[in-house]
Amino acid sequence: MLSIAGLYAVVSFPFQPLDGLIESGEWFIFHKTANLVDRVLNVLFMVLALLLGFGLYSLVAVRAISGIIVIGMKLRFLHKKDPQPIAWLYYDKKLMKEIFSFSMWVMIISVAQRLILSITPSILGITSGSREIAIFSVASSIEGYIWSFSTVFGGMFLPKVSQLMFGDNKNPGAIQELMIKVGRIQYIILGAIVSIFIMVGKDFYLNWVGEDFTKSFIITIFLILPGLITVPQQIGSTVLIASNQVRFNAMSKIIVAIISLTLSYLLSQKYGATGSGVAIFIGNLIGGALMMNIIYSKVLKINIWKFFKMCQLSMSAPFIIVVFTGLALNYHLTILSWTNIFIKVSTLFIIYATTAYFMALNKYEKNPILDLVKKVIR
What we know:
Elements: H1 2-12, H2 17-24, H3 28-51, H4 56-81, H5 93-127, H6 130-150, H7 158-166, H8 174-208, H9 214-224, H10 227-230, H11 234-242, H12 246-298, H13 304-313, H14 317-332, H15 338-359, H16 363-377
Helix pairs in contact: 1-4, 2-4, 3-4, 5-6, 5-12, 6-9, 6-12, 7-11, 8-9, 8-11, 8-13, 8-14, 8-15, 9-12, 11-12, 14-15
């Protein structure tokens, strides 16, 4: 089993840059489709292998088979779309050093990010017990889903940023404009998710896992709130990557991890999983929000105050209105049921979408919506 997995890792490793090449060409639809095909083939082959009774080894083998098929798809696509052939024997010592340096910083970022949610349960096991681990795990799983929805544009603008900074028609001054445009869209999406969750999340947890996990609701809020600042600023993080200054991202993540884990150990001794949630909130606020905003301002010369004015401040009305409407709904709809939860979510979403359209979105942001409505009417 290990030999199959190891062989697949060796074979597939040289093809890791294929995803970067596809994204650099802005072929996002194919990229997402290929990844979806990979997952679907993996599931289909596994089900088929189990039905045919091939055993545990076959599950590892089918993963390798589906992965190789998708690699073939990507190679064929690039061969057709990209006129630049793949130079299999190309070697550049300077480029290798740059790639190694970049990879080290990216590895540090990945390790720091995983440390927080991976080690926190272990800390809770030492200081608070298994019940608090379960409470925190429920909260972190929901936070993961919310993060996936809110960061839907993550990485998609790296080619655009690279063109603005280094292309033939480079225009570094347009970075701030792009950051504001994308940030407003990301904030309006995340604002809807967070505001509705704050109002309906408690009912959801009570109906899903029961009263024993009520604290998970509070912890989830602590985990997602810093995202209202950091997620709309992802273009800034992308600029640091494009300009080979990813070390600043890494330093930020290290600070987040150190603060979060240190405070988690201290606070969880008295407050359990809630203390860990507060610790991660403080870590993300200091390392992820405050430090990164200083970096964007000093290193990238971005006017952060203008960004906040055009993004968070100018688009806060729908968020506030949904919160007050949610309070009224919670006062009148007190019976705990999935039906009432659905009514609340639907009502709040309609109110958020309506107020966002008339009170927050500008003409540039309204045009795609109007075009979609016209197509539906026709």
